[in-house]
Structure formats: C-alpha cells, structure tokens
Queue: 2 jobs
Job 1
Amino acid sequence: MKKITLIALLLSFSMAFSYAQKVTVDLDKTVDMSKYKSFSFLGWQDNSDKILNDLDKQRLLEAFQNEFNIREIKEDKEDPDMDISLYIVVNKETSTTAYTNYMGGGFGRGYYGGAYGGGHSTTTYSENDYLAGTLVIDVYDPDTKKLIWEAVATGTVSEKPSKREKGIPKSVSKLMKKFPVEPVKK
C-alpha cells in the first residue's frame, strides 16, 4: 500500500475515527497504575511506522505525549516508570450495501368485485472500498517486563491530510480516555 494511504488509515482515526472509532482495552488489575509517573517510547513494533510519513508519526507521538502530560506522567528516556510501544495495521476492506425500491400493488373495487394488482421491487447493490486501520498502544513495566495496559483502536481511515492533522489528536484522546489514570484538573 502507499505510504500516504496507510497514514491516512491510522490517522483517519481522526475525523472518521472520531465518530466510528472503536476502542478496547485490557489491563492487569493487580497493578496500581497511579504509581507510574514517567514513560519512555520503546518505538514502533515490527516497524509498523513504515506505513506513516514523518508528519503523521510526529502527530501521533505528540498526541500521546500530550495525553500523558495532562495526567502528569512525564517522558523520561533514562529511567522511566513505564515503557510504551505503538503498532499500526491497515487493511483494505469492502462494504456492501443494498437498497430495495418496492412499487406495491393495491386492492381496489370495481364493478365486478375486488381486484388485486401485484407489485414489483428492484434491489440495487453497491460496494465501497475503504481502508480499515488499527492502532495499538502497549504499556509495559520496565522492571518486570510485563504488559500492564493495552488499548486497541479501530476505525476507517481518511486520506485527507487536513483531517488527519485534526483527527489524530482526537483519536488518541478517545483511546486514552480508557487509561486508568485520569487527567489532572487544574
């Protein structure tokens, strides 16, 4: 796939994703997430960032940094409390829709009794190709090397850069609403 198309997918978590984005999370319930005060990005799993351009990678990283910062969790590359890795997958999908137009008959009375006129219908099918994207964030405890939190966001990708620019922060914000540490109110 083209690099821009995949970027569009991930970042379509933006406008299109803002509305249709699905987020699921998993959490180690034995871990007290409030004890984590710093993070470090481990990087992109399986080099999945190769489908993104540099602008979209930067937008994603800044959006995640902002979400952690508003929770007063600061980036620390030397001695972090948690390690974070990101993963992106984009697939070409096809949706099929059908529309049936029914022209019904009727019942009427005439001179010689009732008459029923049959109807007919026409069904039209259409297919639409689109990109479906998945963004995964994994959070690890660097001491135990255990996964402590994971969020997966899926949605349809927009190929317009302007929508990605606005949509990426919105999509990351929606994903991070499920993070067990709430933003700090000031």
Job 2
Amino acid sequence: MPRLRIGVVEARWEERRNRSIKPLFDVLSELYYSSTHEYEYEMPSTRESFAECVKRLAGKAGIDVLYVAAHGARNSIQLHGRDAKLTADDLVISLRDANRTRSNPGISGLFLGTCQFGTEKVAETLLSNVPRLQWVAGYNSDIDFIESSALDLLFFNDLLKRRGTPDEKIRRVATYFRKNVARLCARTDVGFSIYVRNQGEVSDLLSV
C-alpha cells in the first residue's frame, strides 16, 4: 500500500526536456516514510491511457487523492499527444469508472496541477457528477512552474499532516492556506482555489 495515499498522473511537458513534478513527491515520500516509493506515478499520453491510469490508481489500496499535472487551458487539459485533450466531462467519466473498482472512499480529492483549468465551473462539473469526490483544488490562471510547485508542495505537506475525514482534512488545509499562503493564492497570476460542496452548491474554501 502506498503510504502517502497519492496517485500522480503527469503528462510530458516538453519534447526535449525532462521537466517533472515527480521530485516533489519523492521529497514528501522520503520525508514522511524514508522512501521514495510511497506514492504511485503514471505518465499517460492519450485519453485512453489516462483513463486506464486513473482506473489502475483507484484500484490501488489506499489511494484516495489524485494529482494531475499537465498543460492546461480554460476548457481542457493537454496530454502529450497532439489531439489528446481532456475536458471536465472526460475527467468525470474516468473518475466515476475508477471509483466503481473499489470500496469507499475511492478517489476523494483531485488536485489539478495545470494552468487555467482549475475553475469553479470545472469544479462544479466534477463535484456534481462524481459522488465520492469531496474536493477539487487547482489554478484558474497561467502559472509559473516554480511558484506553483512550491505551492503544491506546501499543500500536500499540510494535507499529509492532517487526520480525519477527507472533508475535515481539506478544510484544515484551507484554514492553513488562508492564514499563511493567502497573498500568493490570491494573486491574479496564480488564482489558486480549493472547491468543496457546501449546502448543495460549490464554494471556494479560500474565499470564505
């Protein structure tokens, strides 16, 4: 069982460079468990392989958070293949199919490590159509790789410290971010949000 309980799905960023967010999770895995092998990592290049990766990760005992890292636009995520784009509806299908493969809790948290795609509209589509999903975090602007990577690291480091249900943990992470990372999250060139269901609607915990 991967003790970080995180599945990482990363698209290739560039043809001739090996840029990757994988070292972030190596650091967290080593820090918490003295091993770089306590999370799961996949690199799909097509819509079909993405769906297969998500299903495989959801079938792993203990995986309840999915991190998706890829180029993004307002309405889609771009995988490595030129025509391999994923919409919010594609993510809904992949997550619903994946969560059928195992008992509770399934994938309860989704972090969109992409430019622009982490909008309230996308979060509403996901949270309204994937019952087991408790939260969606992401960026609604173009983001700097270093700044966003630092923010991602802060997010997962704090999440890993928390105990409780997925909803309790994410709300405590949001409290930490409001107190300590609010200025970075609120910048228009970062636009980071954490969305949850709230009395039948979707709300951003960082704007509360």
